[in-house]
C-alpha cells in the first residue's frame, strides 16, 4: 500500500502529519551519503514514509535500499524531529515527523533511479552541502555534535 497516496485521496493537499524514517548513512571513511532528491532538486538524507504496519526501523532499512541500492544496519537511534513544516511541489502540505537513525553499510551497490533519486554521493561529514529542509539540517547538526536521544 502507498500510504501517502491513500491518505491524500481522502484529505487532498491539506496540512497533515506524515511519518518518515531518515538515515545518516556512513561509509568506512565516515563520509555521509546524500541523495539528490527528484522532488526538491536538492541534497538530502535518504529515507521515506512509513507504511501501515511498519516500524520506523523497518522503514529506514526499506527506504534506503529502494532509494540507494544499499543494505544498511542501524547503529543507533539519533532522535525524533517533530516541530517542522514542509510544502511539496505538488501542493501537498505536511508537518513531517522524522525518526532519524545513524546507519552503516552492510551490502548492496549504489543505484540511481533517475526519478526519486537523481544522484548519490558520499561527502566528508564536515564538508556536506546544505540539506533541503530545516528538519534534516537540525538532525545532521545534532549528529555532528554527538547529540543522541533528541526530541524536537
TrEMBL record:
Keywords: Hydrolase. Belongs to the Nudix hydrolase family. Residues 15-145 form the Nudix hydrolase domain. Its cofactor is Mg(2+). The keyword Hydrolase applies. The keyword Hydrolase applies. It comes from the Bacteria. This is ADP-ribose pyrophosphatase YjhB (NUDIX family). One of its GO terms (molecular function) is hydrolase activity.
